[in-house]
Specification:
The complex is a heterodimer of chains A (about 230) and B (about 675). Chain A has about 230 residues and is of the alpha/beta class. Chain A has eight helices and twelve strands. About 0% of the residues of chain B have low confidence. The chains are: A alpha/beta (about 230), B alpha+beta (about 675).
Amino acid sequence: MAKKIAIVEDEAAIRENYAAAFRREGYDVDGYEAREPALQAFDVRLPDLVVIDINLKDDVEGGFELCRELRSRAQELPIIFLTARDSEFDAVSGLRLGADDYLTKDISLPHLMARIAALFRRLDALQKPRSKESRMTRGDLEIDTDRMTILWQDHPVGLTLTEFWLVHAMARYPGHVKNRQQLMDAAQAVLDDNTITSHIKRIRRKFVAIDAGFNAIETVYGMGYRWLVE
Amino acid sequence: MNLKRQVLLVSLLTLVLPWAGYQFIRETESALRAGQQQMLAGTARAVADSLTQYPEEFPAVQHNDHLFGDQLYGHPLETRPEIDGYFDDWTLDKQSLRTMRGADGPIRFAIGLLDQSVFLYVEVSDRKVVYAEPATLALDSGPRFSDRVALISTSPPYLEETLSFAAEAPGPILTYVKTAYGFAPEPTILAHWQDVPGGYQIEARIPASKLGTHLGLVVSNTGAELEAPVRSASFSSRTPGAFVRTSPELTDAAETLVQDGMRLLVTDSAGWRIAQSGSLTMPSAGAGAAGSAWLRIAYDAFVEAGEEAELAEPDASGREQQQYITQALDGNQSVSWFRSSDSGKAVVAAAQPIKIGNTTVGAAVLQQGTDAILSLRNQGLSRLITGTLIATILVAITLLGYATWLSRRIRRLSVAAEDALDSDKLRTSLPSSSAGDEVGDLSRSFSHVLRQLADYNDYLRSLASKLSHELRTPLAIVTSSLENLEHEPLNEASQGYASRARDGADRLRRILTAMSEASRVEELMQHGEPEVFDLCAALGATVEAYRDVYPQRRFVFDTNVDTARTTGSPELIIQMLDKLVDNAVGFSKDGDAINIALERKDAALVMSVANPGPPLPERMRSQLFDSMVSMRPGDDNKHLGLGLYVAKLIAEGHGGTIRAKNTDDGVAVIVTLQGDSDGK
């Protein structure tokens, strides 16, 4: 059975374009232009993945409301914010509400597709028992590539998809400097310097929340970042 | 010329004050003098009227003789001279001597009156004095002659008498009186013949009763005993002119009429002074000489010139010929005033004709000193000069202070306005903004303009991020449509178009990213957690990286510190360096060296990026770091002029400054950051 994706987006042209692209990949797509109709439909049946715009017509923060509502109904439901708002504050707010990723609208369709595929893959992996092969250990770090989860000192670190990919790219070859382009490719996104800086900061913060002495991510000035294993 | 000088110049106008005051005092003095003249004229009229009681004292009434030159005047003497042939004991000035032409030179003589005596003094120039012999002592009718002086006296219509003064030798001589009946010596006449070099002098005392109403002097000068003498006479007509004597009656009358500080002169119709009394000096004038020297100078410089004071004095010859007196003798009342340039004393005079019937028989001349006016004016002038001097100085100081205050306010305003423009965040509050005057108005309109400028700057600052935000959604529509289009069957031409559209959209996306960079940098700085890092190491590593990125440029990293710990975001600092290096690369040529330097100055860390290349235009220097200002020539429109703006945001976000300057061969951008004071 085809996976069902719901797009909540007030801009009809974008909604239709994304819907067409998703359908081409074989997904079932429902498009909604506002929060209310979307919630009514979700009462009947929850989709497998939701793409939400924050600004819904006159409802400036409608996307956030919708995300909160959905997260309360389904813990595991993948939710992606896709918005024109690129401020750090909005991104943090969205991710705090439990979204799996926060994307700006300049992401390309192939990149978006890759993310959606990855999220579905994770969903599938969660159904299966944990396999040894998919696990990667680097000192205190443990990465489950299938479930896309990361443990630090056996504590789960709540990373978004983009963050996971960034950590994965760095930690796979510890000590190797990953420059910005390599990180961008790994994260399936076109990111500018500041966005990468923000992501790295956010990742560090999440690790530090578990382990105050965390300093495995080193900045190599003028080049990029690398993962250090003691 | 600055404001202070202008106001000072204006304050010079206060010098008009003393001038105006002087004019006022001069007017006052003039009015006072006119009043005094008028009063004096009134007194003169009264005096003249009262003098008409003595018609017999005015010779012109008695004998209408107008040949003034023939008339002789008897000067009143104060003391009785000794008859010794010398003039020096006469109480007359030498100028009083009357002169007539003689054969061997001028003959000078004077006639004096005292009590009932008439005194005669004659000095004759004579190359050769010819003495008389006893036979010729009384007569000179020839054939033998001698030098002699004769007084011819007559009281028309009676016959003449001749008083003949001749000498056998110098010394006392005997006078002979010759009448129609013969001649006889006159012992009541005392005379003295005195030889002097170049002539002789005769002095004589004659009882007044021996002389008539008319008198003439005749000098006979002979070269030798047998030679006919040359006669010189004091009169040109056939008979002698009138002998004018001062009138005791009129003098007595004058004494009663004259007041203190006044002088009264009475003249006959010819101008001969026949009575005089009073003096010009006030009994207790105090002379008013207390005025200081500078006051005197100021006074003389301004004071109105009158006639010479000497003209106020009675004429030495005995005949008053000043114009105002002759006018009175012509029958018109007239006034005049005199001023001495030495003493500054002014004398007011009034002359009033004395008329008997319709005939002017003489003039009464009243003179009065103006000591009162003078002292009034002196005091006034002194007070005026002191007062206006103080006033002028006060006004000048006040104006100077005012101008200083005003110009300081204006300068402060102009400095503040310039500072407000120079500083990054426009300050819109300026000094004097609450003042109610024009400077306040100026300040307020400046503030208004600055506020508008600040609004505009804010608008520009946020324009880029707003624009990028608004454009992102339509751009998403375009890119997603194009990406969908890729999956549609397209012919070759359409694919070309789609590809070009994709390129365009991609470029647009990059531009939008650049435009929103500034706001993201601001955000990062607000939310970022500053960390302590070693700027020196970070720079070294980064410069290393640039060598790979820009192989066509040489990078020189120059530092005099080992470690430079500072607080902030190393990523942002590096990002700033990226912008500066990108700029430096853009303005330099292949093979050029780009110098990156870091040095410590006191607590500050000074980082500079210098590159060879064209210098900065002067007018762009201050705007260089503003949003959307680009100086790149023939731009490939990738540069929106945001790079240096972002660099400035980062530098200032770290509490530092950024500036650009022209170097010898290019441009250097200098960033000053705060180093950790304790860190080494």
